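REQUEST ID: PR-0412
SUBMITTED BY: lab tech R.K.
PRIORITY: routine
TASK: structure prediction, single protein chain
INPUT:
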Amino acid sequence: MEFASIRIITEDLDGMVSFYERVTGTSARRPAPVFAEIVTGGAVLALATPATVAMLGDAAPAARANGSVIVEFLVDDVDAAFERLREGLDDVVLPPSTMPWGNRSTLFRDPDGNLVNLFSRPV
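STATUS: complete
OUTPUT:
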């Protein structure tokens, strides 16, 4: 088994793609109008409209309904990444801080309200 991706279902695919392209500095692959992938390092963040899960009926994940997942990106310099992104962030949950276990971290919400964590490990 090989881990493939984490997918976020969104009603605003273009907005989410733009947000994550800005966060990661990576251009999305858009193999279909209802789907995009942001590939960074060994991980893939998939973004898709509800049309991609409609066949699941009532069991389909709903856009903007996540409350338990944090999308995390390992960065070299949390403070520099935060400064680069700060102006476009609407909801900063935690400014750059050193966590009790030593990681440097900042958390903010994407346009759909999902938590995003940029972190670096102690040297």
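NOTES: The CA atoms of residues 86 and 92 lie 8 Å apart.
REVIEWED BY: pending
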